Amino acid sequence: MLCFKIIIVGDSNVGKSCLLLQFTDLRFKNTHDTTIGIGFGSREIRIMDQNVNLHIWDTAGQESFRSLTRSFYRGAIGGILVFDVTSRQSFQGLVQWYEKIQSYACDDIELIIVGNKTDLNEYRQVSQKEGMQFAKQYNFEYYETSAKSGLNVNKVFEYLAQKIVQKVNSGEIDICQENYGIQLKKQKEIYKLEDNKLDKQKQKNTCC
C-alpha cells in the first residue's frame, strides 16, 4: 500500500483542523479548539486501482508555533494551502505559507489551494475568481470547500492523492514502503511514522 504524508497549512481559524476531521471522520465539530502544535489524522482511499493511506498533518496557524512546525514540512509529498473566503487577511497570508513550503518541504511536493468556509458565503471577502487567479499564478489547482457541509472536501484530498500517484507511476518519485517514507531525488533525510510521531533518521540514500 502506498502511504503519503500530506500537510495542511494556513493562518489560524481558516478551518484546517475541521477539513482534516471532515475527511478522516466524516463529521464537523462546531466548537473546535484551536490546534496547538500539530494535529494528525489518516484515512485510506482508493486511487487509480491502488490503495493509498494518507497521513495528514495539520500545522498550527499561530505565528508563535510556526517555528515548531518547520521540521514537519520535510518528508511531505502533498500540501494543502488553506484560506478562509470570509477573511482577506488569510488569503493574503498564502504567499508566506507558500514561501515556507518552498524553504522546508521537498522540491517535488504537490500543492493545491483551498478556499474554505463557503457555507458563510454571505460574509465572503475573497471572490472565487480571485482564488482561481492566485492558484493559476502558481500553476496550482483551486477548490472551494465547506468543512461544515463537506462540500468538495473529499475531492481535494482525492485530487492531491491522484497527482502524487501519477508521479509515482511515472517514476518521478519513489516510495520507501517499509517506513512510510517518500523517496525523492533532492533531499537526503528519511522520515518514518511510529506511534503517530515523526522520527528522522539520517541516511546516505535520497529518502526524505
UniProtKB/TrEMBL annotation:
<dbReference type="Pfam" id="PF00071">
    <property type="entry name" value="Ras"/>
</dbReference>
<dbReference type="InterPro" id="IPR001806">
    <property type="entry name" value="Small_GTPase"/>
</dbReference>
<dbReference type="InterPro" id="IPR005225">
    <property type="entry name" value="Small_GTP-bd"/>
</dbReference>
<keyword id="KW-0547">Nucleotide-binding</keyword>
<dbReference type="GO" id="GO:0005525">
    <property type="term" value="F:GTP binding"/>
</dbReference>
<keyword id="KW-0342">GTP-binding</keyword>
<keyword id="KW-0472">Membrane</keyword>
<protein>
    <submittedName>
        <fullName>Uncharacterized protein</fullName>
    </submittedName>
</protein>
<dbReference type="GO" id="GO:0012505">
    <property type="term" value="C:endomembrane system"/>
</dbReference>
<dbReference type="GO" id="GO:0003924">
    <property type="term" value="F:GTPase activity"/>
</dbReference>
<keyword id="KW-0449">Lipoprotein</keyword>
<dbReference type="InterPro" id="IPR050305">
    <property type="entry name" value="Small_GTPase_Rab"/>
</dbReference>
